[in-house]
Amino acid sequence: MTYQEVVDIMGGISSSSLMSKKIPMKMKLPVLYNISKLSEALDRWNVSCRELLNRYANKDAQGNPVIINDNYDIPAEFMDDYHKEFKDIMSCDSGLSKKELQKIPMGCFDDYDEEKFDILTLQEIQALQSMVDYH
Fold first, then answer.
1. This model's pTM is above 0.85
2. Where are the domains of the chain?
3. How much is the pLDDT for 113?
């Protein structure tokens, strides 16, 4: 998996209210396992991104990157180089294989009892999409 794929999956999970919902454990356990695995890759990605930002951002008197309005202050003349390197990071292999992720059996959706469990939104279903075993 590339870092882009890891970021996309984690973004989908974290932006949804999925983990606070009452869902079948056959669905929740693989998601929890996958969050743990994806978080390890995301930690490596964060280290690379911080290093990149530290390289290109303006520095204050103590040598720390300048942050303005929650954004690193990167000079315009370095912006193209920064974007190119960021794009390179996103396309790098994260060290995590899709085979390492646990799959949610498709039958979980077929047997989903909306009277016993919370209804899933489209956003939550999309967040789960990469984890579903369609076979």
1. no
2. 3-133
3. 87
